[in-house]
Specification:
Layout lengths: L5 E7 L5 H17 L3 E11 L2 E10 L2 E9 L2 H33 L10
Helix pairs in contact: 1-2
Length: about 120
């Protein structure tokens, strides 16, 4: 069983919303189950002049990704951010896996001669 990534949800100059924090933690746990290399996910929610901005950072083994999203409410902004991070993780994962496979196909193993 894979370990859950450490999730840090910060509310910058906002009251702490435990329901939103739990929603973020649940979604990050799902991401961690799919992408085992993820060890830490940080999410910062702040109010800006037009609504809410959410910044995120994902770290892990050979991994350092970030992103941001905006929305008029904090929950949709957090969902958009986590969607972006998940897409970035999938792209990173696919590049890593399929690059190795393409390289292996490009250079097939040498055939051994017949044994007498």
């Amino acid at each position: 069983m894979a370990e859950r990534p450490t999730v840090v949800a910060t509310f910058k100059d906002l009251p702490v919303d435990e329901v939103l924090r739990e929603s973020i933690a649940t979604r990050c746990a799902e991401i961690g189950q799919e992408f085992h290399e993820v060890t830490r996910i940080e999410v910062t929610i702040a109010e800006d002049g037009n609504g809410y901005t959410v910044h995120g950072h994902v770290t892990g083994k050979g991994l350092d990704l970030g992103g941001q999203a905006q929305a008029s409410q904090p929950a949709p902004a957090a969902d958009r951010l986590l969607d972006k991070l998940e897409r970035q993780l999938r792209t990173h994962h696919d590049k890593r896996i399929f690059t190795q496979r393409r390289e292996a196909q490009r250079h097939p193993p040498k055939k051994r001669g017949a044994q007498s």
